[in-house]
Amino acid sequence: MKSVFLKQPKPLKVKILGVLLLLLLPFALVDNENPFLQILIMIIISSLLLGYSIIYEIRKDFVNYKCFALFGWTVWKQKLDIEYPEYISIFSASFKQDNEWGTVSALGTRIEDKSIVLRFFNDQRYFTAFKNNKYQKVLDKAKEVSELLEVEIYNAIEK
Q: Under a CB-based contact definition with an 8 Å cutoff, are residues 66 and 56 in contact?
């Protein structure tokens, strides 16, 4: 059975917190009588933050899964209930999000992410299946999904 795997982008906040915890590790060693437990907890948390990923598995029979992976190894699968698309579309989009979350708010009050998006459309409903900054990567994934599901691609970018 053939599948297409669509790895979802990790939020910037998660990357920043993971790196921040790793950078704080040397400070846990200074003036601390028993740093082992603190260091171990910081390593585990930063590894989880930096190593996890969410991957959508789109299958030929359209029994799809949302996979939670750690360093590329699938840890858990959950059934992904989406409707079979009439067509798929790729286009450029801008996503805005409030940024009032702890120390990361120092980056500004809003985060704006410009991406190329692959969406499944069915009537007036849609499902965002993949986002990336690289047009060619999204186009390649769209072609794979289109071939797998035998649906048409509408390319709003056309390079």
A: yes
**pTM for the predicted model, two decimal places:** 0.79
85-114 pLDDT, tens digit each: 999 999 988 766 665 555 555 555 666 667
Half-sphere exposure of residue 101: CA atoms within 13 angstroms, side-chain side: 11
Could you give the CA distance from residue 22 to residue 121 in angstroms, rounded to a whole number?
A: 41
89 touches 145 (CB < 8 A) = no
Q: How many Å apart are CA 149 and CA 105, to the nearest integer?
A: 42
Tell me the three state secondary structure of residue 25: helix
Yes or no: say if 85 and 150 are a contact pair by the CB < 8 Å rule.
no
Calculate what percentage of the chain has a pLDDT beyond 90.
Answer: 54
Rounded-to-integer distance, Cα 135 and Cα 76, Å: 30
Q: CA-to-CA distance for 34 and 91, rounded, in angstroms?
A: 53
